[in-house]
Amino acid sequence: MKHALLTAVLLLGSTLPAAAQECTAITSIPTTITTSGRYCLTQHLAMLQTTGDAITVAASYVSIDLKGFELAGAQIPSSTSYGIRAVGQTDITIRNGTLRGFYTAVSLEGSVGASRNHLVENLRVHYALYSGLRVSGQTSIVRSNEILGLGGTTAQGSSPTITGIAVFGNRNVVEKNVITGFPSGGSSIGIIVNPSSNTHIDANHVMEAGTGVYVGNSSAVFVTGNQLTAGSTGVLFWASSGKYRDNLTIGFTNPYLGGTDAGNNQ
């Protein structure tokens, strides 16, 4: 009896990891996901067209693991193509790979009620023409991403505002991201929340954006432990309330504007 029980436990243990790793492979783009579940890349994929989405997510409860592979766009200034895009969905997870050369790499869109509970993590965004990561709704997390090289779009007129990470809604977290490589001249923002009340912006590194962190039309926003380098304004609260603490800035004309200084900012 003991041997039979031990055998059953060992067999169960051997099958669980395989089950946990199952995913539906995305083998070509553009593609649309219409069913909840786990999806992954198994190879590098490229899309030459300059409109539309490489991956459209048209279902909630979807996880996309890039598994270290690259999803590439055309990287043409007039392009308006998105890497991964969802509108009005909930519980979307995107992680672990590179998105290169899109107008916007990832965009999870929708109202506060319709778009929520997203997780965007461990992505490398290269050469986003207009914006790196955009997440709308509530209770979402954007963390541990690297956004390297931004700008170049001609689809937004002569002087667009280039953004690294843009978050809209309530009760969101933006943490431990690295954002660098903005074009010289023009308008640029490392992290913008507008509006996104009750949101935390923590431990990010933003280099050479015109504004490092922009908090607009929001309340109860915490900006803590960020390192911001070289621009016009380091942390800007515009028509907003909140506190900032333990941030480091260097090379800004206005290190801090608005909000409440909670201490240890340099």
Within CATH, the superfamily carries the name Single-stranded right-handed beta-helix, Pectin lyase-like
The CATH C-level name is Mainly Beta
Q: Indicate the percent of residues in helices.
A: under 10%
Q: What structural class do helix, strand and pairing data support?
A: mainly beta
Number of helices: 1
- What characterizes the major β-sheet? 26 strands, parallel
Overall outline: globular
Key terms for this structure?
Pectate Lyase C-like, globular, 26-stranded parallel sheet, 266 residues, 26 strands, mainly beta
Description of the molecule:
The chain has a 26-stranded parallel sheet that branches. The protein is built from one helix and 26 strands. With 266 residues, it is mainly β.
Outline of this structure?
With 266 residues, the chain is mainly beta. The protein has a single domain (37-261), classed as Single-stranded right-handed beta-helix, Pectin lyase-like (Pectate Lyase C-like, 3 Solenoid).
